[in-house]
Design goal:
Distance between the termini: 18 Å
Helix content: 25-40%
Largest sheet: 5 strands, parallel
CATH architecture: 3-Layer(aba) Sandwich
Strand order of the largest sheet: 1-3-2-4-5
Structural class: alpha/beta
Shape: globular
Number of domains: 1
Order of helices and strands: EEHEHEHEHHH
CATH class: Alpha Beta
Amino acid sequence: MTRIHYPPDKPPYEECIIRPTIFLAGPIKNAPDWQAEAINALHFALPEADIVSPRTPGKWHGKYNAQVEWETSELWHAAMHGVIMFWLANSISENPARCYAQTTRFELGEWMTKLLSGWYSEFGNQFDKSPSQLVIGIEPGFSNEKYIRARARTMEPGYVIQSTLEDTCRQVIKVARDRYGTDKEMVERINYNDW
């Protein structure tokens, strides 16, 4: 059964060998609740996964530093034992005091760099330098979309950035199944109209 984790909850790390961890990275403030849609799609296709979302259902009453530490820890865990999914959704409201998706943009650049540099080989990970465990989707119209797409294309020949949340989830499912050797045909059978 799929397990969903919100801060400060963490998946049981001792099970990471048999259960992929999927981290949902992307904007929260002034963004639609795309994480709920992604969870609905992913839990159906990845029943043995741990899905980690920094967006809590309701208001989380933790402290800022605790949230940052939790997210950092879970991003590392997903990179080593699953998939980091970035969905860059358009904003639904403006906040002139804050650049939209500023944290997401920083984290995306950080993880693109880490995965290409082979940082995880120091920790015993058996994968070569590859962004395969990083799946990126950008909603058309997202600010700076053209630049982000251009930079991501330099990661790996043929690397594809998805343009819909559905396709981004489908790619996450494929990567998770490829890394964990489960039924790949399920990816094609998912009916995204049932979300």
